[in-house]
Specification:
- The complex is a heterodimer of chains A (308) and B (303).
- Chain A has 308 residues and is mainly α.
- Chain A has helices spanning 2-21, 23-50, 67-75, 77-108, 113-124, 135-139, 147-154, 168-182, 186-196, 200-208, 214-225, 227-242, 246-252, 264-274, 278-305; strands at residues 53-54, 62-63.
- The longest helix of chain A has 32 residues, at 77-108.
- With 303 residues, chain B is mostly helical.
- Chain B is 72% helix and 0% strand.
- Classes of the chains: A mainly alpha (308), B mainly alpha (303).
- At the A-B interface, helix 1, helix 2, helix 4, helix 5 and helix 6 of A face helix 3, helix 6, helix 7, helix 8 and helix 9 of B.
Chain lengths: 308, 303
């Protein structure tokens, strides 16, 4: 027993010594970790704690148990719509944009060098072009001058202009199209980079081992080699597809017709940023946090298994 | 580093001489039919990707009457700079002088990006190159923070900002941007590729960690700087204040331009000019630094 205590003490001493030895590392990390700690770690914890309270910034928070969550799921019809829309958007745009980003990166990689450079620019540009996606509003504008309507009218496919953004049946699909347009971002660059740095000897070895065409090459050599980039890309695409908000509010307006474009993030911003119901907003944020984190972790587990 | 550069040069000369040989190598397992399918596929998607951007740039050069012809045409038949000069005139008539909005955006973008590059690199260096208690824990937290978006923390961040009195200052936008997790992650991954021998050599010369960081690691991490800059720049450049800024004289360019755009149909041309102004800066930075950014991104994988 005595030796146990001594061992513990010496372990503690060792740790202290180790910390002291590395003090410069901690000094270097301090500014980042301070800001990261306050605005990410503590904020997430606060969000979960406040979700059990009623808080309006003026009075002290009052503990209300699971009331906020009960209200969200049983009393808030708009939230149910928001969850439904967010899941539709995420399930469609997440995986498809991930696959498209990879396929396009893979195809670009087959091009000669100068074209590769140019095509990377063409595909990456939308995601860094600020509010240029507002042009989609002109494309889908409801009068006959809207580009979509005028093209359809001219070709005789419709006789009356379609009110794209005022019709709940179309709104979510238009958001999906715009989100696709914006979705070739960091993940796409990671794929381009990963493919560019592939070891060419692997392909030669593969050819000797009987790989006959580029599809086999993709499946047996490229994909397994790209796994780290694929996992990184998956995180990026999943997180952004669950976080769709401003695209919806800018394109379809806020609130959109029949809440057809309502998402969890928009609901959260509504309660947190406009109505100042901080407890309720925190409950929404906590649910969003759980959804994003769990879907990411599940996909990571899955991707880790592919090809191993 | 010099040796690597020389090697690269040598290799490119060799490439020129043996170009035919290399071309043959590239054709490994490639069929013509497949090439044609690929080109068609890429063509369709690149039209989808580029068309709206080309359209918005073309619109910025159309006179008003050309914006509303039926059916709409892509290229202006009578290109004009009037939309841009209108924008300048409108900028002169806003309630708060336009220079103020420009200053705010430039201030947020510059301070935010420079601060982020320095602070994130400072944190990335020990994470990439040293062993110390708590390292795995910190890095795991950072990976997890990539897995949810900033919206999750927007409510508590607003509360914290109001407690420390930063609401309605530019720093409410700048300070959280310093700790942008994706930037730290990419910087750390990149710094892992810096050879240990360089750091050892500096250590033997008697440099401490600060010195090593500033004079050895930072210059070598230049490609990664550019990546961090482009990623943060485009979000700060187009920020509208994120709900933290209320006074008119602290609002950003993106907000002010948004106000001009909301002037309705008559301003459609000016609106296009605004979009061109907003998109031209990040795209130019990307054009100038593409190869460096790709270089950084090749280390982005999660292992």
């Amino acid at each position: 027993m005595n030796s146990n205590i001594i061992e513990k003490e010496s372990r503690f001493k060792k740790l202290r010594k180790n910390v002291y030895k590395n003090r410069y590392s901690y000094y270097l990390m301090a500014p980042y970790l301070l800001i990261f700690g306050i605005f990410t770690v503590i904020s997430v914890i606060m969000s979960i704690l406040f979700s059990f309270t009623n808080f309006n910034l003026l009075e002290l928070p009052r503990f209300v148990g699971f009331d906020n969550y009960v209200r969200l799921f049983l009393d808030d019809e708009v939230f149910i719509i928001a969850i439904k829309n967010t899941l539709i958007l995420a399930i469609i745009t997440g995986p498809i944009s991930f696959i498209i980003a990879f396929v396009i990166a893979w195809l670009i990689n087959e091009l000669p060098r100068r074209w590769k450079w140019f095509m990377t620019l063409v595909f990456y540009a939308p995601s860094i072009s600020g509010n240029a996606y507002l042009l989609w509003k002109l494309i889908f504008s409801s009068d006959m001058y809207g580009y979509a309507n005028s093209t359809l009218l001219k070709n005789g496919l419709i006789t009356e202009p379609i009110t794209w953004l005022q019709d709940p049946r179309y709104v979510i699909w238009i958001i999906i199209i715009v989100q696709f347009w914006l979705s070739l971002g960091v993940a796409f660059l990671a794929f381009i980079a990963g493919l560019q740095n592939m070891d060419h000897q692997l392909y030669e070895a593969g050819a000797i081992d009987g790989i006959r065409n580029r599809w086999q090459e993709l499946w047996y050599i490229t994909l397994p080699q790209m796994r780290p980039q694929l996992m990184f890309g998956a995180v990026m695409q999943i997180t952004s597809s669950f976080g769709i908000a401003s695209v919806s509010s800018e394109i379809a307006g806020y609130p959109s017709i029949d809440y057809a474009g309502q998402t969890i993030v928009l609901h959260l911003l509504d309660y947190g940023g406009m109505r100042f119901e901080m407890g309720y907003a925190s409950a929404i944020a906590s649910i969003l946090f759980m959804i994003m984190l769990s879907s990411n972790i599940v996909v990571q587990k899955f991707l880790r298994r592919v090809g191993s | 580093m010099d040796k690597i550069e020389k090697l690269k040069k040598l290799m490119s000369i060799e490439n020129l001489i043996f170009k035919r040989k290399i071309k043959k190598k590239k054709r490994l397992n490639r069929s013509t039919a497949g090439n044609i399918v690929i080109l068609l596929f890429l063509l369709i998607f690149s039209v989808f990707s580029a068309y709206p951007l080309i359209f918005i740039i073309a619109n910025a050069f159309k006179p008003l009457h050309e914006l509303f012809i039926f059916p709409p045409r892509l290229f202006p038949s009578d290109p004009t700079f009037k939309n841009f000069s209108d924008l300048l005139i409108l900028m002169g008539t806003t309630w708060v002088p336009m220079s103020r909005y420009i200053f705010n955006t430039v201030f947020i973008t510059l301070v935010g990006t420079v601060g982020h590059v320095i602070i994130a690199s400072m944190c990335a260096f020990p994470l990439a190159k040293h062993q110390f208690p708590g390292k795995t824990f910190i890095f795991t937290l950072i990976i997890y923070s990539l897995m949810f978006s900033g919206a999750v923390t927007s409510t508590p961040v607003f509360m914290i900002m109001s407690w420390i009195g930063l609401v309605d200052t530019l720093f409410a936008v700048i300070i959280p941007a310093f700790a942008f997790p994706l930037g730290l992650y990419l910087m750390k991954q990149f710094m892992e590729t810096i050879p240990d021998s360089l750091l050892e050599a500096a250590k033997i010369d008697g440099a401490n960690d600060f010195k090593i960081f500033w004079s050895v690691v930072m210059p070598l991490a230049k490609p990664a700087w550019l990546t961090l800059i482009i990623l943060l720049f485009q979000s700060l450049w187009s920020t509208n204040g994120g709900g933290y800024i209320f006074s008119e004289q602290l609002k950003t360019l993106s907000y002010a331009l948004g106000q001009i755009v909301s002037g309705g149909i008559a301003r459609a041309g000016t609106a296009a000019a605004v979009s061109v102004v907003m998109l031209i800066v990040p795209i130019t930075i990307f054009i100038l630094s593409q190869s460096k950014i790709i270089d950084t991104m090749s280390h982005s994988g999660i292992k």
